């Protein structure tokens, strides 16, 4: 008896899936940043204007990325109701450390999108995301790196 092999996705379909999957991870990262900057801003003195500006930028990028994922035919990942912080945030220094960590993690997620994006729009968006995350990490006191988003990777 002969069986017909199950169809396998084409290379371009698999590539598109990987691009959408990476974009979904970056969107989840943007959701985490929106949450995290609420915590950061609560622990900064005098109105926390830099945290408010970063929060607005992440909300905007989240909304743009949501639209790009929807345009690709996927349902954008939703935000979690709450996020576990990697360490307690109790003062200005720990708030700034959280902001650096949020940006560094997000930069790595956007670097993954750059490597898997199948559309020029998504790739350009991701490149801008890597740059924005690197600049924000530096603004919060992070260390400069030669290849933002790729540090510590093989």
From TrEMBL:
UniProt-listed InterPro entries: DUF4439, Ferritin-like, Ferritin-like_SF
Coiled-coil blocks: none
Spans through the membrane: none
Segments forming domain DUF4439: 22-151
One protein family per Pfam: DUF4439
Tree of life domain: Bacteria
Protein name: DUF4439 domain-containing protein
Source species of the chain: Jiangella aurantiaca
